[in-house]
Each structure stands twice: as structure tokens, then as C-alpha cells.
Design goal:
Layout lengths: L3 E5 L28 H13 L4 E4 L8 H9 L6 E6 L6 H15 L3 E5 L5 H6 L6 H18 L5 E4 L4 E5 L11 E4 L5 H8 L2 E5 L3 H17 L5 E11 L2 H13 L3 H12 L4 H10 L11 E3 L2 E2 L12 E5 H13 L4 E5 L3 H18 L20
Parallel strand pairs: 1-2, 1-13, 2-3, 3-4, 4-7, 7-8, 8-9, 9-12, 9-13
Antiparallel strand pairs: 5-6, 10-11, 11-12
């Protein structure tokens, strides 16, 4: 089995500690590394050099715009793809189809699309979206139907509850058609994913819980005559020895301010996202005694989720131990891994030079050819 590895583009800023950017405020924090184009270029070029397939670029009021940022990075990279996250409720499906087709043309096919329906009404209202949770997924269902139709090369009409579209089409048919990545754990989300997604994304729960979700979504997909791929979103802390990795996790843990944890947990408790609720349940908002007390499965650390929304778990251990856990996830059906770490530049190298060779030895990734080393002179570390 061959897997795909992706990295994360920190368009919200970056630093050595999770608490520097708790992801609970739309106001930019004073991150040590601001998300200027020079620093983001370093991260993107490093990920490309290290053999990652793509880079997830987030969406929300707490980060830079994903479309514009990644379009600027196309000229500064050669091969890496960009997994652009966006919310269906903030633009028309025909415009999104046109943007995606144009992106594919100017990038040479380097676009992947991450559909984020939105699990927090407060955040949605910042963009003028006042639909409730289930209505948002119903609209996403229609949105993706129009999107696919607009890429067909034939003008398409659509008459639904949320969209009335006549003659939807794009200037050119995207080649290749961008694969659609989609997450969501609620009963309203799963059928939409099964009908439209090419890759279903889940957050990093223990392998048994992930296996259960994969089986559920796969069964729904089969009802629609579709076979989905499955991906997982995780952070990573890998070092030459296990105790070194856990020492890094302890440093992150020691930087947690109980007030920041309380603020973040209060915010997450209001979230309508079932996936966010599942992340919070892994640690219950309890700081524990030390970093190791938040290990919820061998090598799986829930500490990130104390202060960060969304993906809240990290793979922690030696390079071989992290590879072992990745292999366990492949055994329950995961084929794509969307990874990140703090700081994103350095952790990309720890993973790419440490874990990736382990995965190659096990036949899970190709050895690949050594790309040209990126030019890291554009910004100082």
C-alpha cells in the first residue's frame, strides 16, 4: 500500500509553542514568525524538498486567505500541490468552479480542494452566513453538485433549496479535475461526504475509533456506488530517540497557560462540530500532571487540543515509533496523512528526514528522487 504525505502551511503565523496561537480569536496574535510570503515560501519549499505531495492551507478569520496565498506560492515552488480549504457558504459554486479551473490551468494541475462546511455559527456569521449546522451541510451538498456540473464542459442548470443556477460552466474544463477532500462527523455530514468526496478526512483519534469511522463512511459510499480514499489530520513530534520527542512535548505542555486552556475549552464547548466535540472528549479539558499523562494511545498525544481547535492530537516518539503508528492507521484504511508540527519549518525536516525513510523501508512511500535543495535565504530563522 502506498500512502500520500501532506504538510501544513501556517498562514496564521508560526512559532515554537502551541500557546502562541491558540486558534480561538480572529485577531492575529503576535506570533514570533508572522505569515509573510518569505517565511511561507521557506515552509513550502522545505515541504517540497522533503517529498510531501501537498500542503493543507486553512480557511477562517484567524488566518490569511488560502486562495491568494497559495497562488502567490506557485511561482516560488515547482511541484508541490496546495490543498486549499474554503467554505462553500461564502462564494457561489460557479465562481468556485471557475477559480479552481483557472488555478489548475496556471499551476499545471497543482490544486486540491478541501471543503470546510463550518462547525461554528459565530465564525460563520463573520462571513454573513446565518444557516444552522444541518442546513449548511444541505447547502454543501447542492454546492458540490453545481461545482462538478460546471466542470463538465456542458452548461448546467440546477434548481435546489439553496441555489438556482442556469447555464453553469467554466472557461475551461479543469485538467485534472481537482480532487475534493471533505471532513465531517455528524449525521448531516456523512452522506454529503459519501456522495461527493474523493478523500474523506478525519482527525486523529486512536486507530480503533478511526477504523469505525472509516467503515461507516465506506458503507455509505457504497450505497452511492462510490469508493472513497481516507485521510487523517495529525501533528507530529519525532526525534532520533523516543525520550527526546517526549521532552519536546513536555516543553510544549510547560508553556500552556491554564487561562489559555480554559478560554480555548470554553470556546470549543460552544462548537457545533461533532468532530471538535470528539477531539475535546479525548482529554476532557484536563491538563493532567505532565505531557505524558495526555497520551491517549501509545504514541498519540492529545495535548495539542487543549489550546488548538480542530486537529488536536500528535504522533510522538522516535522516528520508528511514529512510523509504527502511521502503519497502524494504514491497516484500518487511512491512505493520506495531513501533518504539521511546531514550528512547521523545523518539524517538516524532522519528519521528512527521520520518519519518511522509515516509511520508505516499509514500502509505504516511494524513495523518490532527491529534489533541488530549496533556497532558504529569503528569511532568517
Amino acid at each position: 500500500m502506498s500512502i500520500e504525505l501532506h504538510w501544513f502551511l501556517p498562514t496564521h503565523g508560526d512559532g515554537r509553542f502551541i500557546a502562541e496561537r491558540p486558534h480561538v480569536s480572529p485577531i492575529a496574535a503576535a506570533s514570533p514568525r508572522q505569515p509573510d510570503i518569505d517565511y511561507l515560501t521557506q515552509v513550502a519549499q522545505a515541504a517540497e524538498h522533503l517529498g510531501f505531495t501537498g500542503m493543507l492551507t486553512p480557511t477562517g478569520s484567524w488566518c490569511q486567505d488560502a486562495w491568494l496565498t497559495t497562488a502567490a506560492l506557485l511561482a516560488r515552488t515547482k511541484r508541490i500541490k496546495f490543498l486549499v480549504a474554503f467554505r462553500p457558504g461564502v462564494l457561489s459554486p460557479t465562481l468556485a468552479a471557475q477559480m479552481a479551473a483557472t488555478y489548475q490551468q496556471i499551476s499545471g494541475g497543482r490544486l486540491l480542494l478541501n471543503i470546510v462546511t463550518g462547525g461554528e455559527s459565530v465564525e460563520q456569521r463573520r462571513f454573513g452566513d446565518h444557516l444552522d449546522h444541518d442546513q449548511r451541510y444541505a447547502r454543501t451538498d447542492e454546492f458540490l453538485s453545481v461545482l462538478r456540473a460546471a466542470w463538465s464542459g456542458t452548461p448546467a442548470d440546477f434548481h435546489g433549496e439553496h441555489y438556482e443556477i442556469e447555464g453553469a460552466r467554466t472557461y475551461s474544463v479543469p485538467d485534472p479535475e481537482p480532487p475534493i477532500y471533505f471532513g465531517g462527523s455528524s449525521p448531516a455530514a456523512l452522506p454529503v461526504a459519501a456522495k461527493h468526496a474523493d478523500v474523506y478526512l478525519t482527525w486523529g483519534e486512536p486507530p480503533a475509533a478511526v477504523a469505525e469511522k472509516v467503515a461507516t463512511v465506506r458503507a455509505i459510499g457504497e450505497k452511492y456506488g462510490r469508493r472513497l480514499r481516507f485521510g487523517i489530520r495529525l501533528h507530529t513530534i519525532s526525534r532520533d530517540r523516543s525520550e527526546q520527542a517526549w521532552a519536546v512535548a513536555q516543553d510544549l505542555y510547560d508553556a500552556f497557560d491554564p487561562a489559555d486552556v480554559a478560554q480555548a475549552q470554553e470556546s470549543f464547548a460552544r462548537s457545533e462540530s461533532v468532530g471538535q466535540q470528539r477531539m475535546a472528549a479525548l482529554h476532557g479539558g484536563d491538563l493532567g500532571d505532565d505531557a505524558r499523562s495526555l497520551e491517549i494511545y501509545p504514541g498519540l498525544w492529545s495535548g495539542v487540543g487543549l489550546v488548538r481547535g480542530g486537529a488536536g492530537t500528535a504522533l510522538v516518539g522516535s522516528h520508528a515509533e511514529v512510523a509504527d503508528l502511521i502503519e497502524q492507521y494504514t491497516e484500518v484504511g487511512i491512505e493520506e496523512f495531513v501533518l504539521s508540527g511546531y514550528p512547521h519549518l523545523e518539524e517538516a525536516y524532522w519528519f521528512g528526514e527521520g520518519v519518511r525513510p522509515e516509511l520508505a523501508r516499509r514500502g509505504l512511500v516511494g524513495t523518490g528522487s532527491e529534489p533541488e535543495r530549496p533556497n532558504l535565504r529569503v528569511a532568517a530563522l
